[in-house]
Amino acid sequence: MNITIKSGLALAAVLVAYCGSAPASEYIYRDLLGNTLASRQCAAKSDAEQRASDAYTIGKFAKRFCETQGYGWYVSEQKAPGRLVCEPCAGADTGYRCHVEDVEVSCKRLKPGSAGLIPGKS
Q1: Half-sphere exposure (CA, 13 Å, Cβ side) for 9?
Q2: Which pLDDT tens digit goes with each residue over 16-26?
Q3: pTM given for the model
Q4: Terminal-to-terminal C-alpha distance of the chain
């Protein structure tokens, strides 16, 4: 039984050495510029600024920017955080609504045919 395990490991090592490494996948990149949405509720200026510039909020919108490009697009990196814009609420509401403009995001997706999905092509 011990010989079987050793021969199995040797066979696996030979197969790994013979197969080599798979070709690296290629990606298509696209840089986008987008704005987040202001919150529905009015809040004190400091609270509205905090909510709009929160890393979670920016990340959520960056993900949404890439996903609107189509199937398979996702965030590669966030290049610029954008600038904060606050506006006073209209009407009887007191406070501010803030959002972030010009958030720069780099999106990527697999280049079609580069992942080895087409038989006979490498």
Answers
A1: 5
A2: 444 544 456 79
A3: 0.69
A4: 39
**Which residue reads 């992942």 in tokens?**
115
> SS3 letters for the chain?
CHHHHHHHHHHHHHHHHHHCCCCCCCEEEEEEEECCCCCCCCECHHHHHHHHCCHHHHHHHHHHHHHCCCCCCEEEEEEECCEEEEEECCCCCCCEEEEEECEEEEEEEECCCCCCCCCCCC
Query: What six digits make up the tokens of 70?
Result: 């189509």
Torsion of CA 20, 22, 24, 25, to 10 degrees: 180
Place of tokens 């040797």: 10
Tokens of 18: 């013979």
Which amino acid type is present at position 92?
A: A
Residue the block writes with tokens 């949405």: 37
